[in-house]
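Q: Predict the bound structure with zinc ion.
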Amino acid sequence: MVISSIDIIHELGKALTPEQVAIDPMSLENYGQDWTRFTPPAPKAIVFPRNTAEVVAIVECARRCRFALVPSGGRTGLSGGACAANGEVVVSMDKINAIAPVNLTDRTVTVGAGAITQNVQQAASDAGLFYPVDFASSGSSQIGGNIATNAGGINVIRYGMTRDWVAGLTVVTGKGEILELNKGLMKNNTGLDFRHLFIGSEGILGFITEATLKLTSPPKDPTVLVLGLSDMNAIMSVLGSIQSTTPLLAYEFFSELAVAKVVEHAGVARPFETRAPFYALVEFEHENEMTDARIFEAVEKCMDEAWVVDAVMSQSVAQARALWRLREDISETISQWTPYKNDISSTVSKVPQLLSAVNAVVHENYPDWDVVWYGHIGDGNLHLNILKPGNLRIEDFKARCNEVSTDIFDAIKKLGGSVSAEHGVGTLKAPYLNYTKSDSEIDAMRAIKDIFDPDGILNPGKVFSTG
Ligand code: 2HG
Ligand code: ZN
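A: Predicted complex:
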């Protein structure tokens, strides 16, 4: 029996209240897509549950009336994981956003999935603690989405990914069951830990409705150093020199084209007059007066080796923030060129091989196009963005980039790397999952999805290729 959209909306209104169901064009447009802007949004409706029980009611309604659900956080994703392009019902977590008082003894905080990352960071900071997962979109991304994509960001080299900061999860599966996973425990060796199955599952197993997050002590006086590099190959030698003297909070890299774009379009100041082909941004804790001496010595050595051509170090929190903008403003600034994104990785030791393999593909295939290099290179993670030439139709641009991607992904496969280091698979990387995961792994992933989502109502078309 096929149920009409009108009946489905009526049923949802009964499961929740009619005010919690939106079908106006603006909501459909807004909640039907993420930051990729590659897929025209076309959801049937948007629903706004206020608690876990209401999410159960939505899942039960979807199973009964046979329609698909797309979980929706801040929709800052870059792989199309939260897009609804085929008449799905989008389940927004906006209203499940409470932040409980910080538990100072456990050093944890329990939050609703819709809590904004920055608000969680602020709550931790107000309690004298620190939630270390951070990225440019923290002002609008939500904790549930961060967990569903195992978000990384700018401090991974020191603090790891979101996975490392989740002590407990409440989820609603595609069967409408509520699971309380790990319950905030620090120690719990009782067989398979499903918490880790749901972290990074991109909404294909269930809805994350609540999370207990671990907190830590804040870093002492974070200081930023921006270095101009003589060429791309210098990047890992510089990392080695600096890391051997001082533990790092971040090690980022970006190209001159990235700097030129943020200077011109975001009003960010250049770090220094010298133009270098590439730059490194290093952040470290300023522990004591010895820190400066150690850092200066390492930078001097890098200059003697001709790896570094110029350098500047922040002298205040405001200066550190200004220097960070050189890196953090890149993604938003270049979004006006509808970039084709690569979010690739190798082990840190193989980064030189990764860079030279990718460089060869870029030279051969995009000789006349603008290619912006940046990324969390200290984690082995490169964000290679190809900017769409103005005269090219988006479909033709995508098709051309998709072809070239396979050359890049072949190189990554040889290196044992990943086709999606931190943005997730979503729809954009689904056709390429087999470059990183074996057929047996993909079969097991599908079998696990069937256990938690036997009717296939959760985020269809994401993660697994349908072609
Ligand atoms: C970043 O590191 C984000 O700035 C976005 O992960 C990367 O836009 C991108 O490709
Ligand atoms: Zn990133």
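A: Residues 376, 383, 422 surround zinc ion (ligand 2) (CB under 6 Å).
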